[in-house]
Amino acid sequence: MALVGATFQDFTPLALGTAVALAGLSLWFLARYACGHRSKPTTPQTLPEVPGLPVIGNLLQLKEKKPHKTFTQWAKTYGPIYSIRTGANIIIVLNSSDVVKEAMVTRFSSISTRKLSSALKTLTFDKTMVAMSDYDDFHKMMKRLVLTNVLGPNAQKRHRIHRETLIENTSRQLQIHLKNYPLEAVNLNKIFDYELFGLAIKQVLGKDVASIRVGELGITMSREDIIKVLVTGPMEGAIEVDWRDFFPYLRWIPNKSFERKIQQMCIQREALMKALIQEQKKRIDLGEDIDCYLDFLLSEAKTLSEKQMAMLLWEVIIQATDTTMVTVEWAMFELAKNPKSQDRLYREIQSICGPEKITEDKLCHLPYLSTVFHETIRKYSPIPVIPLRYVHEDTELGGYHIPARSEIAINIYGCNMDNKVWENPEEWRPERFLDENNDTVDLFKTMSFGGGRRICAGALQAMVISCMAIGRFIQEFEWQLKDGEEENVDTQVLTTRKLHPMQAILKPRN
Ligand code: HEM
């Protein structure tokens, strides 16, 4: 967070605004809670509990696998903070911005570790990722490395060329679709996902890959195979459930099929990452240096083991695609559904860019575009529930005593749907972030990027890519949902990713 703020000013004015907002946000957290806590009652009360069944607790009530929605529903009865039981585990669920900020900032030192599911423990090579680690020296080192070379403002300036290629390629694919099938709906998800993966690979390895021979597995992988092994497979694996996580006293019972499945994913990923790295090392040996994360880690992070290095590289690849895709797809869905908003955005872009294509330097002059982005990550929080945090010493939240060894679920979706903070939260209305002079206000009031020391490291990249993509898609085409598509609002398990990719009909502008 400090690193993000420190060097923002020499990026675009958008980034400067972001830096000020992020810095302001954390100061605001501090000020608010420094004051807030003085007036809290001194005797902590007993936390409300959602009633469940003996032994299994509330597990059956969560079987729909949309915990963010179930938690938000329970908050209506039990309030912004309550406890649930998943088998033998106690989880404290936080559903309002106030109590979430308290956990992320004021009480952070007591809640700075993670408790990972068995699947995540294996897939993250026991917390060897910035986002899944405990807050310790290793975490700080990893975060510094990724900010310096990939995600911080200076690094983002150097990677601008890759973002421009991403937008150009996607736009070209949409033009081709329109030319060949003018009356058929386009699947934006398929095109944009593929390009986002390309961007991540270039940031990490320096060059895109079409296919690769993976010696350890004795196979050649196509690009589709590579995406499956590095992104879609592990994402499905991350939400695999080992029932023994809920009943640790039964851990002696084997769960071989689960273990084999996750192990297999790790073996394939490791072999593939090794092959990808070897390929690039040949380039480096030939004297061809590229400004990418691999080259940087090889020269600056010599204490990392090969496996740790592969994990750090993989983290950027897996994080670069999903959340940005979720944001852009839902934003285009809402714009296609709301012609007035679409028209307003088009007019704003026309007035600033005229006949020129939108560029990153123009983003700070496009306030409505910015509100479209922030309203979309409010309504469709791309990370609806933050991976569980762990309370390692007794603490207090919202005036309640929180015992050590509790787990904390931060329901970002619940905060963003809180009708005490947001008027008609179900409604997608970018105008809520504009004042009477059409200036943007409170853009970071959503909790979508988290807060405090674990604030999202990729917020700048996500904002710039999403705004550039949305802006360019609206500049070039008029978007209309295919008949029946408006009702397709279901999401994939545990996430806010659209279950059925958006189907939209395009019309050229001019
Ligand atoms: C709209 C898009 C995105 C949203 C809404 C989002 C949201 C979040 C949230 C809520 C957290 C905090 C988790 C916590 O408190 O434990 C987080 C952390 C993180 N995000 Fe993002 N993210 C987005 C895009 C990205 C991208 C594109 C990248 C990288 C390519 C990225 C990299 C990270 C990393 C490395 C962390 C861990 C930070 C830490 O633990 O110190 N994010 N993100």
UniProtKB/TrEMBL annotation:
<dbReference type="InterPro" id="IPR001128">
    <property type="entry name" value="Cyt_P450"/>
</dbReference>
<dbReference type="GO" id="GO:0010241">
    <property type="term" value="P:ent-kaurene oxidation to kaurenoic acid"/>
</dbReference>
<dbReference type="GO" id="GO:0009707">
    <property type="term" value="C:chloroplast outer membrane"/>
</dbReference>
<dbReference type="Pfam" id="PF00067">
    <property type="entry name" value="p450"/>
</dbReference>
<keyword id="KW-1133">Transmembrane helix</keyword>
<keyword id="KW-0812">Transmembrane</keyword>
<dbReference type="InterPro" id="IPR002401">
    <property type="entry name" value="Cyt_P450_E_grp-I"/>
</dbReference>
<keyword id="KW-0472">Membrane</keyword>
<dbReference type="GO" id="GO:0016709">
    <property type="term" value="F:oxidoreductase activity, acting on paired donors, with incorporation or reduction of molecular oxygen, NAD(P)H as one donor, and incorporation of one atom of oxygen"/>
</dbReference>
<keyword id="KW-0479">Metal-binding</keyword>
<keyword id="KW-1002">Plastid outer membrane</keyword>
<dbReference type="GO" id="GO:0009686">
    <property type="term" value="P:gibberellin biosynthetic process"/>
</dbReference>
<keyword id="KW-0934">Plastid</keyword>
<dbReference type="GO" id="GO:0052615">
    <property type="term" value="F:ent-kaurene oxidase activity"/>
</dbReference>
<keyword id="KW-0408">Iron</keyword>
<dbReference type="InterPro" id="IPR017972">
    <property type="entry name" value="Cyt_P450_CS"/>
</dbReference>
<dbReference type="InterPro" id="IPR036396">
    <property type="entry name" value="Cyt_P450_sf"/>
</dbReference>
<comment type="function">
    <text>Catalyzes three successive oxidations of the 4-methyl group of ent-kaurene giving kaurenoic acid, a key step in gibberellins (GAs) biosynthesis. GAs, which are involved many processes, including stem elongation, play a central role in plant development.</text>
</comment>
<keyword id="KW-0503">Monooxygenase</keyword>
<comment type="similarity">
    <text>Belongs to the cytochrome P450 family.</text>
</comment>
<dbReference type="GO" id="GO:0005783">
    <property type="term" value="C:endoplasmic reticulum"/>
</dbReference>
<keyword id="KW-0349">Heme</keyword>
<keyword id="KW-0560">Oxidoreductase</keyword>
<dbReference type="GO" id="GO:0020037">
    <property type="term" value="F:heme binding"/>
</dbReference>
<protein>
    <recommendedName>
        <fullName>ent-kaurene monooxygenase</fullName>
        <ecNumber>1.14.14.86</ecNumber>
    </recommendedName>
</protein>
<dbReference type="GO" id="GO:0005506">
    <property type="term" value="F:iron ion binding"/>
</dbReference>
<feature type="binding site" description="axial binding residue">
    <location>
        <position position="456"/>
    </location>
    <ligand>
        <name>heme</name>
    </ligand>
</feature>
<dbReference type="InterPro" id="IPR044225">
    <property type="entry name" value="KO_chloroplastic"/>
</dbReference>
